[in-house]
Design a protein that fits this description.
about 240 residues, alpha/beta
Length: about 240
């Protein structure tokens, strides 16, 4: 609900963008990067995570409050069983071994997704990371893991019905309250790397008024300099929110 209210309050006037509160990152190109470097696919995903650390730090330094990364979509389960296993191992390593680093830098961790198919060990590590960083205030990192924007909206509608809601209860505010984390602010800026120009089911509800930027750079090569340049471009945009 806070996100909906924020959209409504900002949309009263045309607003110069300045620093985005929430940046969404679609991390595309890890596999292509690995192939270009004659490396196993897993090495591309590891290089991709190392770059998340760099870009997250740069975002927080610029004053961005929340960074969302599209780590693993509901559709990604259709990849090869070997690649899925490797990705789940990487996520488990991140939540276990990077937790102290995230805590030291004051980063709060949240994981969005239905989490129905991830293993018990990973689920436990996620709960631990969320619990131990819940009081961190420097910035928030949202992992979208086993996440699909359409499924998030479907699950929100099911929850409203389960609570006895009817058609008159279906409002933007009520749906927003039932999303995977109703404290997530609207996504001000979405960046997608590796040349593709689509959202691919990412943050569909919270992306209603997002500014969109695309780059041919593959995610492991996406630099802090290019990221800062996009923030500078964003700062020059005027957001009208439909007016």
């Amino acid at each position: 609900m806070r996100g909906v209210r924020r959209i409504l309050s900002i949309s009263m006037n045309e607003t110069q963008a300045a620093v985005p509160h929430h940046v969404g990152l679609i991390l595309d190109g890890n596999r292509r990067w690995a192939r270009e470097h004659n490396l196993p696919i897993y090495e591309g995903h590891k290089a991709g995570y190392r770059n998340v650390e760099r870009i997250l730090d740069a975002a927080i330094e610029r004053g961005v409050e929340c960074v969302s990364i599209y780590a693993f979509s509901t559709e990604n389960w259709n990849r090869s069983a070997d690649e899925v296993r490797q990705l789940m191992r990487l996520f488990l390593w991140v939540f276990k071994h990077e937790l102290d680093n995230l805590k030291r830098h004051g980063v709060r961790v949240r994981v969005l997704g239905n989490k129905l198919r991830i293993g018990k060990a990973l689920l436990k590590a996620i709960h631990t990371a969320e619990r131990e960083t819940q009081n961190s205030r420097r910035g928030t990192l949202l992992f979208c893991l086993d996440y699909g924007g359409q499924q998030e909206i479907v699950d929100a509608m099911k929850q409203i019905i389960a609570e006895g809601g009817n058609s008159t209860d279906i409002t933007a505010e009520r749906i927003s309250e039932q999303l995977y984390d109703n404290g997530v602010p609207p996504v001000d800026l979405i960046i997608r790397t590796s040349g593709e120009q689509r959202l691919s089911n990412f943050m569909l509800w919270n992306a209603a008024y997002s500014e969109l930027m695309f780059t041919p750079t593959k995610w492991p090569d996406f630099s802090v300099e290019e990221f800062n340049s996009m923030l500078d471009t964003y700062a020059q945009r005027h957001r009208r929110f439909g007016q």
